[in-house]
Specification:
Helix content: 40-55%
Structural class: mainly alpha
Low-confidence stretches: none
Shape: globular
Number of strands: 9
Distance between the termini: 23 Å
Strand content: 5-15%
Amino acid sequence: MTVAPSQLEPELAEAYRESADRSILAALNPKIFFGYFSVCADPSQGHGHDTTFPGLDWGQSAEALLWLGRRAEVLASWEYVKPFLREDGLLPFAIVPGQAGTTVQMKLPQKDESYPFTVEKNGGAYRHWFPGNPLLMLPNVTFVVLADAIVRHTGDRAWLAAQGPVLRRVTDWMVRQVTPEGLVPGGGFYIERPPRLDHDGVTQCYTIHALRLAAELVGEPAYAAVADRITAAFRAKFWAGDHCVEYLNPEHGAISHHGLTDVDWAAVATGVATPAQVEVLWPQLRNARDFIYEGIPTGISTRPETYEDWEMLYLDRHDLAAMGRVWYLEAWARHRLGDRAGLLESLRQVARVGKANGWYWRERYYSERSGYLGSYKINTYCEYPANFIRIVHRFVLGR
């Protein structure tokens, strides 16, 4: 049984142990390969028994495994993903060995249109089938963030030096995506519906964060200069007077009428919002109860009922939900601004929902206000437990 950090109160210590033993460690499967871990503790519940997602799912679980002392498995997984890096520097958002060399037409149910989902011969999927290609920046950003986590855990500068060429290729690709006016394209950073075409606020913030990390990891000040350029564009174009713009749509312009959103958390967490903007934003954010969906943080928006069908491309609304990836941004923002009480309470909320479900968490939790309770309720999903462990170590214990 995993031993929880001694500084945790009993309720959180129990949740930490169960997160580790029932989810993160249970998802390891050396029968696939040494270092493989699935996104579900019970992979039969969805997303493929041998699939790797080199985006947040991979990075979150990998860092949790580092905190749990499973460095060898994380480094093995890193080496597994590296050969899928394309010559131009793009990583796949999914590695699906069972579908290698195939193309499936994905149909929009309310429109007479279909779009190809292609898995290359090597098993890598490099482009999302959704129009506008959401998740474009996700794998490359995650790769840099995980490299930083590995170095912080191991202190292995020789390992970092050996990764220098691949990290430069990954980061150079990100730099090439930035428009002359300092905007990062690619739709939703970690969501598909809504795809947030063409410029998602979370994408801007996470790309800035990754470029700053890359500048330190490989000693390249030019990456920080690009991050500064994106930051200036964000502060000018993604501020709606008292909260952040969610995304910039090519037809409808700046979209900012869905209440507070995960973009607000991201702007605070990553330090992208100006001090003056934070002063206006934080009193609204820190006590916004409408981010709680089905008793758990953190929903994508405080007004999920206001999204329109065109924003979903007439598909379901499964990403109008509370997800562990949004909760991590909330926890990061609370830590940055010294809100320890709010941080601990969010951990308790997540712990209680997990305990009521036999110490497992779903992939999505839905707000009744949205009118969509969703069918995307895969159980034993590892995102909340992975982030529970990360949040405890990074933000509660301050490591």
